[in-house]
Specification:
The protein is mostly helical. The protein contains 23 helices and four strands. Helix 20 packs across helix 23 (561-579).
Length: 581
């Protein structure tokens, strides 16, 4: 025996390994085996897609990632507001800002707008902040993917805007940041369209839930607004992601509602319900006015920029100067506006003040978004709705005091009614109002106002603010899948190649090209179907052009109307199968 009791090996004998070395060797073998199995499982997921159980774990991961992103965004905005404005309580920023010198109120938004303008001019090709509308477009047209680099830049720009006095909300940047995370994950998995859209829905639900401490509304927002269907296969993973993000958010911010109501609202009696029908009509008109003010500001700013030759980076800067000028007299426009919304919900504002504040908030939101400073439209619509409802309730309860309950109930219903009409999401908005306030006893009044306002506004605009944004860009999602699915089908994937047995004769095809009847190779069925309708031709040549203007067109193939209709039918069937699975 050697010293320490270790056995020595004789001649020709193998030295046995020590016990620690043997354990280390077994751990290494186990680790290699686990890595091999993980690599094999990951490769299988990338080739065949995840199973339902595997996707639930992916949803959990996405929920945690998007929830942490939303938490980081919210904390960053609060921290920057503290540093920039010098306040210890960002929740009461408006009251603090009223005590600042006027030149600070002007300078801070102006410098913020300048920073945003330079950032967007340098890192985006069009100087535009990406928002919820782009996420909806990504879910419909690009297999659940959004622009990653531009999305991150847009999130940073919106953070600067909200921190320096921009009169918008945080839900837009949070939704887009969450969708960027989902896009990265979809790329790693090589996810197909259905899986990519479901992952996008999970991330969006998590972002909204963590941002507003509203897990039910977050899940329904993703289904109602982004995916625009309530398929059963997507429901469970979206709920898992929403719940995971909410747990993380509550561990940081606590289990508290965003707004605190001093008393629970009570309906006077059922005879008061007609007043909420009328409130819904008023809120629908106010929502349309808010949306059209934003679009008018965008158009006016674009025309002024084109005529004056103003550089792109100066547009947000000038908008910041205008916001600063308004904030000197009305500091309540700064940021998301939850302080003023809370005051409206508890009835602390007089009738005239509520009306003026609502009008000024609409103007400030239009300037911010029209000036391409970034941010979301949900929080402004909550504030405008609460002020509208308070003003309406003040009048209604004074005219019919014997048949009226709490006047502040109208502020709560108005808050939901305007927001639902703007978002085009009556279900999730109704629930998010309940979750933000904790008042579930006044559901009947809120539901009546929300349903009426949404029905009215959707008749005047293209269903919602987001879908109207897309319609203005030429993306026709509001019309339904029978319209936008045509954009996803490329002519070259449906046509019969030149020289194929069932293709049209090349001589006849070139004769039609010389007559001006042809489609380019990069066209989609959105351009092809109206051409079939107009010419009544059974087939149309598909050509490509050379780099020089005088180069003759080259025949690629022929698109037959029957093939186009068959491809459209298959796409509609796939869409219906996804929405009803």
């Amino acid at each position: 025996m050697t010293k320490g009791g270790a056995a020595s090996a004789g001649p020709g004998q193998e030295v046995p390994p020590s016990q620690p070395a043997a354990k280390a060797g077994r751990r290494a073998v186990t680790a290699r085996a686990l890595r091999g199995r993980w690599g094999e499982a990951w490769g299988l997921i990338r080739r065949r897609g995840p199973t339902a159980l595997q996707f639930w774990f992916i949803a959990l991961f996405l929920g945690c990632a998007a929830g942490l992103g939303a938490i980081a965004f919210r904390l960053s905005v609060g921290l920057l507001q503290e540093r920039i404005y010098g306040t210890d309580d960002p929740a009461h920023l408006h009251s603090f800002a009223a005590s600042l010198p006027w030149y600070w109120l002007v300078a801070i938004p102006a410098l913020g707008g300048l920073t945003v303008g330079l950032l967007l001019d340098r890192f985006t090709e069009d100087g535009r902040v990406r928002s919820v509308a782009d996420v909806i477009e990504g879910a419909a047209l690009t297999e659940g993917r959004v622009q990653k680099r531009r999305g991150l830049i847009s999130t940073l720009a919106s953070m600067i805007t909200l921190s320096t006095g921009g009169s918008t909300g945080r839900e837009g940047p949070v939704v887009h940041l969450s969708s960027v995370l989902a896009t990265y994950a979809s790329g790693l998995m090589r996810a197909d369209g259905r899986t990519g859209r479901d992952m996008l829905g999970c991330a969006v639900a998590a972002g909204v839930s963590a941002s507003f401490n509203a897990p039910i509304a977050g899940a329904l927002f993703a289904l109602e607004v982004v995916l625009r269907h309530f398929a059963v296969h997507a429901f469970a993973p979206i709920v898992i992601a929403s719940a995971a993000a909410t747990v993380l958010a509550r561990s940081v911010f606590g289990d508290v509602t965003e707004f605190v109501l001093p008393v629970k609202g009570q309906l006077g009696f059922y005879q008061e319900l007609p007043a909420f029908v009328l409130l819904g009509l008023v809120c629908g008109c106010v929502a349309v006015a808010l949306m059209r003010a934003i679009f008018l500001a965008e158009d006016m700013a674009a025309r002024a920029q084109a005529r004056s030759g103003l550089p792109r980076w100066a547009r947000p800067a000038l908008s910041g100067v205008m916001l600063g000028g308004i904030a000197v007299w009305f500091p309540h426009i700064i940021g998301v506006g939850y302080e003023t919304t809370s005051r409206a919900l508890v009835g602390e504002l007089a009738l005239g003040t509520a009306v003026i504040f609502a009008a000024v908030k609409v103007l400030a939101t239009a300037i911010t978004l029209g000036g391409r400073m970034g941010g979301g439209v949900f929080s402004p619509s909550l504030m405008v709705g609460a002020l509208t409802g308070l003003a309406f309730g003040t009048v209604a309860t004074s005219l019919f005091p014997e048949a009226s309950g709490e006047g502040t109930l109208y502020a709560l219903a108005g808050m939901g009614a305007v927001a639902a009409a703007v978002l085009g999401a009556p279900i999730s908005t109704t629930l998010i109002v309940f979750e933000l306030t904790g008042d579930w006893q006044t559901g009947l009044a809120v539901m009546v106002a929300v349903s009426i306002s949404t029905a009215l506004a959707s008749r005047i605009v293209d269903r919602s603010y987001f879908l109207t944004q897309l319609e203005r860009r030429g993306v026709h999602l509001a019309a339904g899948p029978q319209a936008w699915l045509l954009c996803t089908l490329r002519v070259e994937s449906v046509m019969r190649a030149a020289g194929a047995p069932r293709a049209a004769p090349e001589e006849e095809a070139m004769a039609r090209v010389r007559e001006g009847l042809f489609l380019e190779s990069d066209a989609t069925l959105e351009q092809a179907m109206p051409l079939f309708e107009k010419t009544a031709a059974p087939w149309i040549p598909v050509v490509s052009f050379g780099e020089t203007a005088d180069a003759p067109p080259q025949l690629w193939g022929t698109l037959f109307q029957v093939d186009a209709l068959r491809a459209m039918n298959r796409a509609l069937a796939r869409q219906a199968a996804e929405e009803h699975s």
